[in-house]
Every structure is written in structure tokens, then in C-alpha cells.
């Protein structure tokens, strides 16, 4: 590549494994130091949204928690399925991408009757060190403000 000046440097955040330990930091690199087409698997941790769902009957037939992005982008799903409610009131999959959400908890009371309660106070999941410390109480009852229907699909 004669006649071209020196390769331009840039900063890159790189993660390495050294002596079975992870080391990460910014490095100054040039394009010729990168491996073309290199692919690596990455685990991305999402902070949890902590809820405490309660029901006014024992042993609902089934239950589910959904999160609806309040200010999502075109690539966000319409809702995130956080899984069933565990025996301690938490969602099975509490991790959500950074953002603000409405939370809906539903349970099946009988084979044909579903009840839901939406927590619409813009739950912020924006703490880089982890999710909210407070568990949002979401009591699902068979009276207002709960409604006799499932959480919406969108």
C-alpha cells in the first residue's frame, strides 16, 4: 500500500482471557490488527425488574408476567414475556433490556376465567449496576383495578 500514510489508530474496548482470568480495557489499535470476520459468543446480562405479584386466591391454575416497553425502538418487541410468577411473587425471567416499562400480571382463576392487573407507573430499568432494589407490589384481585381478561398481546 505504498504512498499511503501510517495506519490510523483508534480506541477499542477489548476483552481477553489471560491465565484463566478475564481482563478488559481500552486499547489503541489499527485496522490491520483486527482479524477479519472474527466472531465470538457473548453473554449479555440484563438488569432485573423486581416485582411482588400476589393473588387473592391460592394456587392459580397458571400465571404470567409481561413487560411493555414505554419508549422502545422499532426493533423492540411489542412485549417481553417474563415467564410465570414464582411462589415468592417474582417473575421467572426478570431481566429486561434498559428502558422503561409497564408491567402486566395475569392469572387463570378457572378454566375459562383470567384476571390481570397492569402496573403502569413507568417502571424504569435503567440502573447500570442492576435492577430496582424495591419490589413493585402488584396485587391481582377479582375486583377493580384488576380486570377480567388476559394481558394484551400488544
Explained architecture:
- There is one protein chain.
- The protein is an all-beta fold and 154 residues long.
- It contains no helices and 8 strands.
- It has strands at 9-18, 21-30, 51-55, 62-69, 80-83, 99-110, 113-125, 136-140.
- The strands form 3 sheets. A 4-stranded antiparallel β-sheet has the order 5-4-6-7, with no helix packed on it.
- It is elongated and about 70 Å long.
- The protein starts with 8 loop residues before the first strand and ends in a 14-residue tail after the last strand.
- Strand percent estimate: 35-45%
Shape: elongated
Strand elements, count: 8
* Helix proportion range: under 10%
> What is the CA-CA span between the terminal residues?
55 Å
Mean pLDDT level: 78
Order of H and E elements: EEEEEEEE
Strand order of the largest sheet: 5-4-6-7
Please tell me how large the radius of gyration is: 23 Å
